[in-house]
């Protein structure tokens, strides 16, 4: 027996197709114009509906869910500026290839630009950061065939090849709260049959022959979801004498011969040594790379060839030397390549591994002698982190510190590196911890946490969530960057210096609060942080603002020294 839902047929059609396409999570921000959508989604128990008031936070909360499940997640908002508040999360989803379906309620078209309340030009408002957008027809007699086609196309674009966000705008006329029981009507579903993107046998043969011409092959992996096949293929390639594989925490790839902590090696390479470290063949994939050092190194010292492997035919030329764009799923391509290539005599792998080993020794020596600061705080987190936790990182300093510690490469790691903004890290972690039910640690800077503190304003905080806030009194990264660090406006306009503490926020949202401002307190707090708890826990770590930049500079100076 059908349950009463919105009396607007276009809404019923939309919700039915969402269900048939496998969408199950719907994040709704309260409003009146979207009432027909809210009533209809909530009437069907097959949807899990979430209420998140702040649309900016709601967007990142949905992103965290889709990040974990790989399935489309819907975002539903009222008309007006509500839609624009999704933009930061939608841009992140676009550049991370995360499937989100934005469903925005709107005024009827005739009321746009007529000084009617809560009305803006919503059509196309997100076009630069979505894969597809459409507006559903408003007429009561609108063809179901046409509505079905528009929505089906949205889901196709949301999931096809490179996943990503789409936008469906739904003009809705008053009255908005009417309900009815619609006659049973099976919606036509347009099935997707995706063609193979594997490389032809002839092309693969040519590529494998080209591969064997190079005795210095460098593979750089950036942002990547945990992928066992990709990891296994790269581990096998990293055992070849002529191959070096560089990864970051966000690559979710590690192995005995894989080099983690890119900056710890690249920062030590002198002009006289460049020849031994620069590649002849560079291989890359989609996914942003955190390290600015490797980007500068490879742009300055270019390889003879560069292959970029992606299911998209977009020419990604981050290092300004692209010679071959390979349209294929990277894991598939590497698995096909492996049987066709062999190890050849070369010192390339050994050169990088020896330097990485030297840097690791300097790293440990420096930390042993160093006092209390951001770097030391992150070191304590690395040592205390239990196995099988997922780690979510805030942007700016936090994710850069993460690259320096091997311990973080053993866990599933996530960070909003699609656009690298400080907004949304907390909301993303909250959504991810809710849907995954995994113990989740967020490590975030003070400004990033405060900017997204509305991420705690919902009913979905899990007891498995732990938040570490590195509070150095402002945007500490600007003390590392030449330019802002030398400016008299640093503290006010770049660093945004402050004296705030996070305890009132933790108490307001009912979280347990811990604070550490030295090593002894840090160790004690970490023990409590990773213990069982019936509520989420925030650990605020206070570090000295002005010392951190000098510490990091002396750290990299130490790495360059001979043993």
TrEMBL record:
GO MF entries: 2-succinyl-5-enolpyruvyl-6-hydroxy-3-cyclohexene-1-carboxylic-acid synthase activity
Keywords linked to the UniProt accession: Magnesium, Manganese, Menaquinone biosynthesis, Metal-binding, Thiamine pyrophosphate, Transferase
Documented EC number(s): 2.2.1.9
Complexes and interactors: Homodimer.
Catalytic activity as recorded in UniProt: isochorismate + 2-oxoglutarate + H(+) = 5-enolpyruvoyl-6-hydroxy-2-succinyl-cyclohex-3-ene-1-carboxylate + CO2
Cofactor note as given: Binds 1 thiamine pyrophosphate per subunit.
Pfam families: TPP_enzyme_C, TPP_enzyme_M_2, TPP_enzyme_N
Coiled coil (UniProt feature): none
Cited InterPro entries: MenaQ_synth_MenD, MenD_middle, THDP-binding, Thiamin_PyroP_enz_TPP-bd_dom, TPP_enzyme_TPP-bd
Domain annotation Thiamine pyrophosphate enzyme N-terminal TPP-binding: ranges: 9-119
Descriptive protein name: 2-succinyl-5-enolpyruvyl-6-hydroxy-3-cyclohexene-1-carboxylate synthase
Pathways involved: Quinol/quinone metabolism; menaquinone biosynthesis; Quinol/quinone metabolism; 1,4-dihydroxy-2-naphthoate biosynthesis; 1,4-dihydroxy-2-naphthoate from chorismate: step 2/7
Annotated ranges, domain Thiamine pyrophosphate enzyme TPP-binding: 403-541
Originating gene: menD
Chain's role: Catalyzes the thiamine diphosphate-dependent decarboxylation of 2-oxoglutarate and the subsequent addition of the resulting succinic semialdehyde-thiamine pyrophosphate anion to isochorismate to yield 2-succinyl-5-enolpyruvyl-6-hydroxy-3-cyclohexene-1-carboxylate (SEPHCHC).
Required cofactor(s): Mg(2+); Mn(2+); thiamine diphosphate
Record-stated family: Belongs to the TPP enzyme family. MenD subfamily.
Catalytic class of the enzyme: transferase
Domain Menaquinone biosynthesis protein MenD middle residue range list: 200-390
Domain of life assignment: Bacteria
């Amino acid at each position: 027996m059908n349950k009463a839902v919105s009396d607007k047929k276009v809404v019923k059609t939309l919700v039915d197709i969402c269900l048939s396409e496998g969408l199950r999570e719907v994040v709704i921000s309260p409003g009146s114009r979207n009432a027909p959508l809210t009533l209809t989604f909530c009437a069907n128990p097959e949807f899990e509906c979430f209420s998140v008031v702040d649309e900016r936070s709601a967007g990142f909360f949905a992103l965290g869910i889709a990040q974990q499940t790989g399935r489309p997640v819907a975002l539903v908002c009222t008309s007006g500026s509500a839609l624009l508040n999704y933009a930061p999360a939608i841009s992140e989803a676009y550049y991370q290839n995360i499937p989100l379906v934005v469903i925005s309620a709107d005024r009827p078209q005739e009321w746009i630009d007529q000084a009617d309340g809560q009305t803006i030009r919503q059509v196309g408002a997100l076009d630069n950061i979505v894969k597809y957008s459409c507006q559903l027809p408003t007429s009561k007699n609108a063809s179901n065939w046409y509505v079905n086609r528009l929505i089906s196309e949205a889901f196709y674009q949301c999931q096809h090849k490179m996943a990503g966000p789409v936008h469906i705008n739904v003009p809705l006329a008053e009255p908005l709260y009417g309900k009815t029981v619609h006659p049973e009507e099976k919606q036509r579903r347009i099935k997707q049959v995706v063609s193979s993107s594997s490389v032809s046998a002839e092309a693969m043969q040519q590529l494998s022959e080209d591969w064997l011409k190079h005795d210095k092959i460098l593979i750089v992996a950036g942002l990547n979801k945990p992928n066992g096949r990709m990891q296994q293929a790269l581990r096998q390639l990293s055992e070849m004498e002529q191959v070096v594989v560089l990864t970051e925490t966000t690559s979710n790839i590690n192995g005995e011969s894989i080099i983690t902590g890119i900056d710890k090696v690249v920062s030590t390479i002198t002009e006289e040594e460049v020849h031994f470290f620069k590649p002849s063949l560079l291989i890359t994939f989609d996914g942003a790379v955190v390290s600015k050092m490797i980007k500068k190194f490879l742009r300055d010292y270019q390889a003879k060839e560069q292959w970029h492997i992606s299911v998209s035919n977009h020419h990604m030329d981050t290092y300004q030397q692209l010679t071959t764009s390979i349209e294929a799923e990277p894991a598939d391509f590497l698995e096909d390549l492996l049987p066709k290539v062999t190890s050849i005599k070369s010192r390339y792998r050994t050169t990088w591994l020896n330097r990485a080993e030297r840097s690791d020794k300097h790293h440990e020596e420096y930390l042993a002698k160093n006092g209390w600061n951001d770097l030391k705080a992150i070191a304590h987190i690395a040592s205390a982190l239990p196995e099988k936790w997922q780690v979510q990182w805030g942007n700016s300093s936090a994710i850069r510190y993460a690259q320096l510690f091997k311990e973080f490469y053993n866990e599933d790691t996530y960070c909003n590196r699609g656009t690298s903004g400080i907004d949304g890290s907390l909301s993303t972690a909250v959504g991810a911890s809710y849907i995954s039910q995994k113990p989740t640690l967020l490590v975030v800077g003070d400004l990033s946490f405060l900017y997204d503190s509305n991420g705690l304003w919902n009913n979905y905080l899990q007891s498995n969530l732990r938040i570490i806030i590195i509070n150095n009194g402002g945007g500490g990264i600007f003390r590392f960057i030449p330019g802002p660090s030398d400016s008299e406006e640093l503290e006010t306009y770049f660093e945004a210096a402050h004296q705030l503490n996070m305890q009132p926020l933790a108490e307001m949202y009912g979280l347990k609060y811990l604070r550490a401002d030295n090593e002894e307190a840090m160790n004690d707090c970490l023990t409590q942080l990773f213990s069982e708890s019936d509520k989420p826990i925030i650990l605020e770590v206070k570090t000295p603002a002005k010392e951190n930049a000098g510490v990091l500079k002396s750290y990299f100076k130490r790495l360059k020294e001979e043993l």
